[in-house]
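Re: [ENG-882] Designed sequences occasionally contain unexpected residues at chain ends

Forwarding the minimal case from QA. Structure tokens:
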């Protein structure tokens, strides 16, 4: 038993996340009326269930493989392993732990890591420095940002975790996709060499097929959001981002989206809004707050402001072809990864993202944009002003810019964020 617990403790943050989500699950079931906040209720249950299985596998002694969020987690299903998304775990702990994970940002700050870096990486780095993670290998791409490229070597040089990097090209053309397809395949082979396993690409196909179905359902939900009022709740965006990153390729992820589609269709047909009345339709081209997701409910219920989608919920790619040869499958995997949220926006000039935002504003009848600018996210730094001007010139709709940190509540508190949005909303009504 002690031995098994020891094995599970190679990923203590996953155990803490599982325990906090299980407690939350019990609270939701015991306190919140059954039909209320279904995205939260269903999402917490599904993520807990998938994490439980990961912990069981950890107890069996399977290798713990960390992956950067820009690598779709289902790719690691070619191994008997425990795949752990570093950024997803850190941010979900920021939301589920009462005191957040600022302690780990400070641990990294005291170690000498610059304070103005992205907390997506800084959280799991601090947890590793504190001995909470023991990875057998880590897989990351050279995208989407400098923070990623400059932070991941820490795991190799400070923690001695084997680090495998998939080199992602900047340009998006056939040669790039072919090159990156090779990079993904070779990276998986290298991970296999480190953990002493041959990648089983036939097994991986099944999990990719699950995600192909997930993608189709997410697209159906996305289409329904064009309706007025929006049939999703704001918190769906935050929960969907979590399942998408933390438990991709699992049956739980598929069943989360299947249930959400049914609920979304029902609300669409009944013209129901989660908060009662939709007064403002907003697009958040970057992220919602992870240090406190209650903002989503407050916007829905207090302001009648719908968050139509955030960055994790408007990026889609073609399904991966699993019926042809392996080269075709890896080619499609490369395309999917290069279209991934943040990767797509960060590894391109901004024109395409500006055009996409204008198009989405029209298609989804948006009244405004809210851009949450994270201090760590340098490559998005120049974008908000360009977007604000484009939205004003092309459509005459306003954009509110809020400088904050997604995971660290000390930069801009929830109260300040709410006050800014409240004042902005008054100018819209
Ligand atoms: S938020 Fe910005 S800095 Fe952080 S991982 Fe995403 S692209 Fe990189």
């Amino acid at each position: 038993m002690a031995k098994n617990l020891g094995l599970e403790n190679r990923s203590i943050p996953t155990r803490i996340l599982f325990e906090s989500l299980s407690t939350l699950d019990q609270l939701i079931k015991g306190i919140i009326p059954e039909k209320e906040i279904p995205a939260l209720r269903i999402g917490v249950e599904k993520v807990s269930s998938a994490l439980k299985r990961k912990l069981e596998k950890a107890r069996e002694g399977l290798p713990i493989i960390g992956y950067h969020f820009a690598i779709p987690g289902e790719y690691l299903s070619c191994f008997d392993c425990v795949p752990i998304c570093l950024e997803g775990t850190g941010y979900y702990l920021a939301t589920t732990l009462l005191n957040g994970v600022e302690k780990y940002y400070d641990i990294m700050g005291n170690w000498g890591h610059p304070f103005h870096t992205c907390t997506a990486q800084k959280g799991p780095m601090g947890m590793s420095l504190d001995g909470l993670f023991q990875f057998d290998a880590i897989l990351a791409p050279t995208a989407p940002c400098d923070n990623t490229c400059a932070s991941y070597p820490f795991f190799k040089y400070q923690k001695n975790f084997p680090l495998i990097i998939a080199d992602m090209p900047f340009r998006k053309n056939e040669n790039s996709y072919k090159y990156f397809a090779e990079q993904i395949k070779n990276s998986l082979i290298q991970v296999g060499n480190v953990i002493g396993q041959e990648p089983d690409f036939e097994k991986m196909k099944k999990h990719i097929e699950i995600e192909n179905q997930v993608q189709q359902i997410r697209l159906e939900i996305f289409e329904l959001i064009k309706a007025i009022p929006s049939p999703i709740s704001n918190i769906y965006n935050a929960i969907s981002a979590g399942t998408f990153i933390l438990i991709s390729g699992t049956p739980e992820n598929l069943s989360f989206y299947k249930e959400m589609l049914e609920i979304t269709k029902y609300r669409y047909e009944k013209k129901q809004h989660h908060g009662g009345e939709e007064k403002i339709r907003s697009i958040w081209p970057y992220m919602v707050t992870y240090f406190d997701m209650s903002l989503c409910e407050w916007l829905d219920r207090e302001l009648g402001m719908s968050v139509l989608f955030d960055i994790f919920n408007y990026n889609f790619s073609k399904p991966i072809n699993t019926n042809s040869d392996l080269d075709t499958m890896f080619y499609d995997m490369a395309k999917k990864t290069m279209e991934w949220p943040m990767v797509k926006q960060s590894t391109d000039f901004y024109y395409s993202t500006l055009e996409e935002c204008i198009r989405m504003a029209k298609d989804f009848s948006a009244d405004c944009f809210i851009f949450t600018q994270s201090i760590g996210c340098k490559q998005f730094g120049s974008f908000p002003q360009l977007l604000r001007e484009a939205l004003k010139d092309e459509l005459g709709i306003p954009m509110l810019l809020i400088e904050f940190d997604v995971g660290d509540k000390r930069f801009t508190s929830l109260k300040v964020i709410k006050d800014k949005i409240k004042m902005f909303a008054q100018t819209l009504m």
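QA comment: On inspection the terminal residues look reasonable. The pocket of iron/sulfur cluster is lined by residues 118, 120, 144-145, 147-148, 342, 346, 374, 376-377 (CB under 6 Å). Proposing we downgrade this to a documentation issue.
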